[in-house]
Amino acid sequence: MRDGALLSASIYRPADKGVHPTIVVMTPYGVDRTHAKSRYFAEHGLNVVVVDVRGRGESDGVFEPHIHERHDSSDVIEWSANQSWCDGNVAMFGGSYLGMAQWLAAAEHPSHLRTIAPCVPSMAGIDHPAVGGSFTPFYVQWLALTGGRSPQFNAIDDQDYWLDVYRRLYLEHRPFGELANLSGNPSRIFDTWIAHQTMDAYWDQQIPSRAEFEAIAIPVLTIGGLYDDALVATVAFYTRHNAAAGGIAADHHLLLGPWDHAGAQNPRPEVGGLKFAKALLDLNALHVAWYQWVMQGRAKPSLMKHRVVYYVTGEESWRTADRIEDVTQSRKTLFLHSRNGEANDVFYSGRLDETDSASPPATYKNDPLDTRPADLIGPIDLVTPITLFDQTLALNTFGNGLIYHTDPLPEAMFLAGFIEIHLWIALDVPDADFRVSLYQILPTGESLILGETLLRARYRRSFREAEFPEPGVPIEYVFDRLAFQSRLIARYSRFRFVVSSPNTPYNQKNYNSGGDVMWETAADARVANVTVFHEPPHASYILLPVGNPNTTVIADDVLREWLQ
To answer: Is the dihedral of CA 208, 209, 215, 221 positive or negative?
Structure first.
């Protein structure tokens, strides 16, 4: 590297030992994890250089997540381009952390980088280490995985152990800042992260700036999963690049399939109990075709004729559009109404409809010391829920939440785009956290989660600076970070909307005092009475993206080329 540090790599080359384009992979998870894909690429005429990032595996230095990848990735790209077996054309590959590294490399504009193909990348400030200002306990598990030189996959996957850790923090009302120590894995990185609770320069360096996005002129293939927790961040990279770069981002293509975080890298036909008829794309073949198009002048992959390719669940089709804005034809507004001031139960819920008529406000109570929800929750895979059909929290709010339903839909409804929720809320405490969740209630009675997100009251206007709400005053909260949605909602389905304050072992607990949430305990707890308003001029509502039926359905003869 430019500072003299040595990074360790495994290099895969085609059997002819000739001169070929090169794929660079930067990983904190051990080079062996990408062996199968690296071999595949080499068998298809591409060199592959898989590098342990700084401080991991056999590489020099200290691991600082996302901090060194800008310069190190750029240096590896230029080193690779100058090897005798490389023709001077370099691309990148990889998902999750490996996808983020690609964006940071592109921000440095190495002269031999021809394309990146980031899959399911996260973005600081959107989904790590916090969502809506609320820190995510899972990242303590991730730090256990990456805390030493070698990855600890068995440790991160021991869900019974981690649930026990989270339950102890939750039931004993310990401050969130003790979580790493409580887990038995004290972490310097965790201490650094919790010292930066708002977006600041520390997090900014982990994301390309607008000027850097504007200058990224190479082709980009972004791949995301409709059921991936990182989807909001993945799409944010796409939209920020397009917003900044304009015309020079014309070769930025977005592929969104019916996958979770792992499935977007190795597709599977099912997620959380929901099955898909055409999910099994051959992404390895698609990558090879993409690299050959960019670096060897071959035909553009037929699947990527248009810039946006997305799967419609329920319809079980792949559709295409020229812009992500084109997938949405219009927006349907559903207003919230109470039933005589009540909406506190699935079986005595409020109403969702298209009228903005007067309706009394409804109130729910969030008691941070109420630990009954712990009895309902077992070990789960925090990357992929056990099931998309679980409605335990909706059926057991313990008074901590409001629930609203539509009538059964007289016709099927095509959703495609971004759901947005506007709530007018008043608090009687200095601060609180909110969770909003939207479900499809199928004609069978099953409940399918469509999307949800979190928001801390003090960060409703900005994640850079806290602004505490004035007690008792209705304030508008805009929840605009729900994931991209693409689903045909069956006739006679209903929508269910739930607003609550997160109170489970898998969430950072806000004790509602307005203090430093990282170090609050039971001594700081205040019961929050949360009032949601329904009547104009404080009408609360949901904006549903109605899908554009005129987007192109990919023909079966084209699709067959890419299905496994």
So the answer is: positive
- For the chain, residues with pLDDT lower than 50 are 382-384
Tens of pLDDT, residue by residue over 348-390, are: 999 999 999 889 999 999 999 999 999 887 765 544 455 799 9
Supply 323's token pair: 């812009």
Q: Specify the pairing of strand 86-92 against strand 20-27.
A: parallel
Task: Report CA 393 to chain centroid distance, whole Å.
Answer: 21
Per-residue burial over 139-149, b if 16 or more Cβ lie within 10 Å, else e, is bbbbbbbbbee
According to CATH, the superfamily of the domain at 9-126+201-304 is Alpha/Beta hydrolase fold, catalytic domain (3.40.50.1820)
Alpha-carbon distance of 562 to 450, in angstroms, equals 27
Phi/psi of residue 311, nearest 5 degrees: -90, 135
Is residue 105 within 8 Å of residue 73, measured between CB atoms?
yes
pLDDT score of 380: 59
How far is CA 228 from each of CA 262, 424, 504, rounded to the nearest angstrom? 8, 29, 21
Supply 61's token pair.
Answer: 């230095």
Residue type, 48: V
DSSP characters for 152-164? -HHHHT-HHHHHH
For residues 492 and 411, give the distance between their C-alpha atoms in angstroms, rounded to a whole number: 7
Buried b (16+ CB within 10 A) or exposed e, 473-488: ebbebebebbbbbbbb
Give first-to-last CA distance, the chain, whole Å: 39
Q: Which of 45, 38, 37, 35 is nearest to 15 (CA)?
A: 45
DSSP state of 99: H
DSSP letter for 215, please: H
Phi (first) and psi of residue 198, to 5 degrees: -120, 160
DSSP 33: G
SS3 270: strand
Query: Three-class SS of residue 223?
Result: strand
- For residue 350, what are its two tokens? 């409020």
Type of residue numbered 514? G
Tokens of 152: 């600890």
Q: Where are the alpha helices (DSSP H) in 332-414?
A: 392-395
170-205 per-position pLDDT tens digit: 999 999 999 999 999 999 999 999 999 999 999 999
Q: Which two tokens stand for residue 485?
A: 């949605």
Fold of 329-547: Jelly Rolls (2.60.120)
Whether 491 and 411 have beta carbons less than 8 Å apart is answered as yes
**Residue 357 to residue 376: CA distance in whole angstroms:** 37
52/65 Cα distance (integer angstroms): 12
Domain boundaries, the chain: 9-126+201-304, 134-194, 329-547
Cα gap 104→514, rounded to integer Å: 35
pLDDT of 379: 66
CB-based contacts of 467, cutoff 8 Å, min separation 6: 458, 459, 460, 461
CB atoms within 10 A of CB 4: 6
How far is Cα 162 from Cα 139, in angstroms, rounded to an integer? Answer: 11
Residue-wise pLDDT for 463-509, tens only, equals 999 999 999 999 999 999 999 999 999 999 999 999 999 999 999 99
Angle subtended at Cα 508 by Cα 482 and Cα 228, rounded to the nearest 5 degrees = 35
